[in-house]
Amino acid sequence: MRARNSFLLVVGLFGVVAAVAAAFWFGTLRAREESLLQGHRQLQLMAPDLQSVLQRFETLPFVLARQPDLANALAHPNDPAAIARLNGTLQTIQQQAKVGALYLMDRNGLTLGASNWDQPLGFVGKNFSYRPYFHAALRGHAGLFYGIGTSTSEAGYFIAQPVYANGSAGGPVAGVIAVKISLAEFERTWSSSDDPIALADRHGVVFLSNREDWKYHSLHPLREATLAELNHTQQYTGKNLTPLQQTPGPFVTLPVGRLGWQLMLFPNQSRVTRVGTLWALATALLLAFAAASLWALHQRRRRMEERLASREALQQAAQELESRIAQRTQQLSETNQHLETKYHTLQQTEHMLRSTQNELVQAGKLAMLGQMAAGITHELNQPLAAIRAFADNARTYLERGQPEQAASNLVHIGAASARMGAIIGQLKGFARKDQNVAAVDLAHSVRASAFLLESEFQRREALLDIDTGAGAMIVAGDAVRIEQVLINLLRNALDAVETSPLRRVHLILSREDGQAVVRISDSGEGIPEQVAAHLFEPFFTTKPSGKGLGLGLAISSSIVQAMNGQLRAYNRPEGGAEFEMRLPLQTEGGTI
Ligand code: ADP
């Protein structure tokens, strides 16, 4: 991956360099073409100007040749008056026509008169027979020439015409009239141009240019013959015509004049390079911008992809979570339903249990009442029978007139009634309402219960020992219910000792850690192991039907618990069972 990336990078860089180089090349090419085109246009504007300058004065020597002063001077070269006239005429015309110089030569090339006759470097007396224009004119043609003046050292364009002896063409040529025109003015107009401009002759020698160092140097090396010819005509007298130091770049050229001249323009290459550089720069910028855009696009796409991926992951996570929540909710609702059903069942069960318990308590009470009723009936029957017997005997004694005997019987009747009253007094407690919580003296309850069962113990030849200790033992509770519990425990103990050789039940009331404790032990066989587990269950009994309901301990236990107490049973090491009832003691202020 990394190798691939670096390969791509190298290829990309190479591509960028190639594109920039191509842009430079293309820009340069375009700029060069453009500059050449522009240069050509410039030349096309310049060339006619030059052309018109050259042509403007072509007729001047032709017209002058017909001046009688010229022929006259040629006819009389030694006549000072004729020469003076000639000089005057030439000077006047030169000044009027605004040309460089006007001068007349005889057939030998000797200058007879000139417009600059009065100047130190005047042409008068100079021989110009070596100049080609002189020879051309001598042969009857117009002579054209450009060169540096041998006397003035000033360059100029020379136009020569033959002067005929009889003043008109056809006769013998008496002399040559020449005009010299300066092109310096024209050259000056180029100075403002940035591009090198040059005017070169047919040999390739630059003689006019806005580059001073180009002047009088050839564009290419000159042949020996050419150099010899130039030397002979002294065209560029005093100049060493070496080739240009540096070869100029591309150029445009236009032919000008009648001497095979070339007007040349060399477009500035630095501008071309500048344009090329601009192209390259623009391309580089464009590429950089494209690369940056691509990079940004790539980054954006990557970010989008990442975002999409993370969104997908999130969605997946959310879906998983949702399904898990749904699952859990389902489970919970199922559990809830289950629990509700269970709770409902429990409620029903509890309700049933409560009602059953109440019913049981009620039934227990009724059973107790039944048992008590039997006991009471038994207890009441005896005094009642005694009262009847004493009453019958008392009436008999009264009929016999034995009132003392009768009175003693009435005392017995009173005692029996008192006993009955006591028994009935016990019954009052059962008539009271449930949960009649009050301060109860446990010692009193013990005695009352024992009293109720006294005759039964006697009948069954069992011994009941009671030890209530000294003083009252106050607990908070219902006296009737406490007695119900005590009677039940004592009766169970009595049942337990039934078959024992030694029938003995022992009740001890004591005070332990702020609690009142009643312990009822018997000399029976104790509680068998299988019975112990079910001792306090309702309807559990080992007794024959009709004798026990199996409710006694269950009811007793609930009664004791309702009074914040405890009821427990265990076997004594020395034999027999012991039942222990604990109830919180109450002081004068309240419960301890
Ligand atoms: P019931 O007396 O009607 O049987 P209880 O609930 O009072 O009902 O007693 C349940 C059973 O507990 C008795 O049937 C008996 O087997 C056992 N039991 C109660 N007290 C004693 C005791 N002192 N010694 C041995 N067993 C006892």
From TrEMBL:
PROSITE patterns, per the entry: HIS_KIN (PS50109)
**What InterPro entries does the record tag this protein with?**
HATPase_C_sf, HATPase_dom, His_kinase_dom, HisK_dim/P_dom, HisK_dim/P_sf, Sensor-like_sf, Sig_transdc_His_kin-like_C, Sig_transdc_His_kinase_DctB
Compartments (UniProt record): Cell inner membrane
Reaction catalysed?
Answer: ATP + protein L-histidine = ADP + protein N-phospho-L-histidine
Naming one, the record's GO cellular component terms include: plasma membrane
Q: Which UniProt keywords apply?
A: ATP-binding, Cell inner membrane, Cell membrane, Coiled coil, Kinase, Membrane, Nucleotide-binding, Phosphoprotein, Transferase, Transmembrane, Transmembrane helix, Two-component regulatory system
- What would you give as a GO molecular function for this chain, any one? ATP binding
Q: How does it sit in the membrane?
A: Multi-pass membrane protein
Q: Which domain of life is it from?
A: Bacteria
What sections of the sequence does the record tag as coiled-coil? 304-338
Q: Pinpoint the Histidine kinase domain residues.
A: 375-587
The portions of this protein that span the membrane are 278-297
EC number(s)?
Answer: 2.7.13.3
The main place the protein resides is membrane
Q: What is this protein called?
A: C4-dicarboxylate transport sensor protein DctB
